Amino acid sequence: EIQAEQIEAKDAQPEEPKPTELELLKDQLIRLAADFDNFRKRARREQEELRQYGIERLARDVLPVADNLTRALSHATEDNPLTQGIKMVGKQLADVLASFGVRKIDSVGVRFDPACHEALSQQVVEGATPGSIVVEVEPGYHIHDRLLRPAKVVVAAEPPAATVVDETQQTE
Predict the structure, then answer these.
(1) Would you state the pLDDT for residue 49?
(2) Which residues, in sequence order, are bridge partners of residue 142?
(3) What is the pLDDT of residue 3?
(4) CA distance linking residue 86 with residue 129, whole number of Å
(5) If DSSP states are collapsed to H, E and C, what string results for the chain?
(6) Is the pLDDT of residue 7 over 70?
(7) In the chain, is it the N or the C terminus that has fewer CB atoms within a 10 Å radius of its CB?
(8) How does residue 172 score in pLDDT terms, banded at 50, 70 and 90?
């Protein structure tokens, strides 16, 4: 008798209506439209990144050339026409890189930032604030908002503490 009453109670509860084929297709279409919209946004974002950062590898390979031009200029005499030509080529190279979003990182005199500087050593420099950059060994570069190459720098160190001599320990 108890089992029969339980069966009758189950039958008395209303069943949830099963979704119709039309409702299933409508839900599927909504999900497909959302997936396509997400795909379109992702493709647009990837295309923009490729446009902005597509020359990153080329820029990394060209930066040593720019460094070598700068080194050559540091050893050249100012009155030499060849020096003037190297300066013009260096400026042209810098302008082309800048047109693609590559820009040099300011280093000397600024506070050391491990996000864009690589410390090669520390050096005590009279009048320099400890933690500031005193020498740029190799310039660093950004491409748009990304670090392309960190600047290799020398950082000002704290001067050593003066040794205090105790007068009672001095020998005469």
Answers:
(1) 86
(2) 103, 147
(3) 58
(4) 35
(5) CHHHHHHHHHHHCCCCCCCCHHHHHHHHHHHHHHHHHHHHHHHHHHHHHHHHHCCHHHHHHHHHHHHHHHHHHHCCCCCCHHHHHHHHHHHHHHHHHHHCCEEECCCCCCECCCCCEEEEEEECCCCCCCCEEEEEEECCEEECCEEEECEEEEEECCCCCCCCCCHHHCCC
(6) no
(7) C
(8) very low
